[in-house]
Design goal:
Rossmann fold; seven-stranded mixed sheet; 7 strands; 43% helix; globular
């Protein structure tokens, strides 16, 4: 009997981090009313995720780099994520972070938390010579409107049809993406979306909850893949 292979994909903002770091930065360094208006437009599907980030970066103007670094350094992660990282290492499970946020703060936070060995795919953010925020979207795909970093493509390219895929998330950029995985761990907006769309999911409060459930899944003799996820993956294969 072949051993079951699991691949775990995790959102960053609001899932690993205690709050949405991207939104917190733009609210701190930009105009709060303008930021709220742009984010509301995204949540109403009036603009794409990429357009949202471009507008948010444009709304900030010149930024104090040291003040930005100090602000990022105060933002916390869910400490139980380190337990999931350890669990994956011990059980040889591939763990990949898929974020529609930016490498600038994820790398800084992960270095601080001694997590810079974890694989991360995100958008890129640099500060130019005029101290302006300059975003780049190396993984953009026009068919993924809810995430400028097309998380769906990463899931498909980092897993095979034989693998059991797990997605852990909380927000808007996870709604479309999570549907390509066999098992979904959801909280906040992603949980509400799964309830509304009648998508099977596991609720969780922290990563210790996730570890317990994954242990149960791994111990099952017969484990079924989610049929709707298989269909969605096939749709993408056929269009490529």
């Amino acid at each position: 009997m072949m051993e079951k292979v699991f691949k775990i994909f995790v959102d960053f903002d609001g899932t690993i981090s205690k709050e949405d770091v991207g939104e917190a930065i733009f609210r701190e360094f930009g105009n709060k009313e303008k930021v709220d208006s742009i984010i509301t437009s995204l949540l109403k599907d009036e603009i794409s995720a990429k357009d949202c980030w471009l507008m948010l970066c444009d709304s900030v103007g010149r930024i104090d780099i040291n003040r930005l670094k100090n602000f990022i350094d105060k933002l916390e992660i869910d400490s139980t994520f380190k337990n999931l990282d350890k669990y994956c290492a011990e059980n040889k499970i591939e763990l990949i972070i898929l974020s529609d946020g930016f490498d600038l703060y994820i790398k800084r936070i992960f270095e601080r938390e001694n997590l810079n060995h974890v694989s991360v795919y995100s958008n890129k953010l640099e500060i130019d010579e005029n101290n302006r925020l300059t975003p780049e979207f190396p993984y953009f795909d026009a068919s993924c409107t809810t995430s400028a970093n097309c998380k769906r493509n990463h899931i498909i390219s980092h897993s095979s049809d034989e693998d059991f895929t797990i997605f852990i998330g909380d927000g808007n950029s996870d709604k479309y993406t999570s549907q390509f995985c066999d098992f979904i761990f959801a909280k906040d907006d992603l949980l509400k979306f799964c309830e509304l769309e009648r998508i099977t999911y596991f609720p969780y409060k922290n990563f210790d909850d996730v570890i317990l459930k994954i242990d149960q899944l791994r111990s099952k003799k017969r484990l079924k893949k989610r049929h709707q996820a298989e269909l969605k993956r096939k749709e993408i294969y056929m269009t490529e």
